[in-house]
Amino acid sequence: MISPVTFWIILGVLLMVLEIFTPTFFVFWFGLGSLAAAIVAYFYENTIFELLTFIVVSGILVLSTRKLAKKITGEEVRSINVDEIIGKEAIVIEQIDNKLGKGVVKVSGDMWRAVSVDDDVVIQSGEKVIIEKVEGAHVVVRPVFKPKEFENLKENKSDNL
């Protein structure tokens, strides 16, 4: 059976190690809160005091040091204006098929649900698209044709007329 002190120390170390693999500076504070709970567990061995210490210390650290952490990591709070992505090129992450209601694109590091301007066009993963407009939480896209594909498309349309 693992002692409460050992549990809190292991949890604290795991949270601090997890911080290495996350892009934010957030989980680290819970690791410190866990180590504070380990100290309480060493002296009192009361689960309620341990949990309260973990929650209070983690909360205080998160609230009081977020600005410092942002300064250290150089991370700025990202704000996105949806108008900024209109006209930008995006890459299709999940095949866009309006009939199946599927589609995800990545633009400027953000993932968006996507639909095609043409319901009959299925756009494969890995292809590039242009963002035509934003409708709610979806972007409406059109495929970026390479010159040869564009010529083939024009020929196919003129053959159908």
Automatic annotation (TrEMBL):
Domain of life of the native organism: Bacteria
Membrane topology: Multi-pass membrane protein
GO CC list: plasma membrane
Gene3D superfamilies membership: Nucleic acid-binding proteins
Subcellular location: Membrane
UniProt KW Membrane keyword: yes
InterPro entries named among the record's database cross-references: Membrane_assoc_protease, NA-bd_OB-fold, NfeD-like_C
Name of the protein in question: NfeD-like C-terminal domain-containing protein
Phylogenetic lineage: Bacteria, Thermotogati, Thermotogota, Thermotogae, Thermotogales
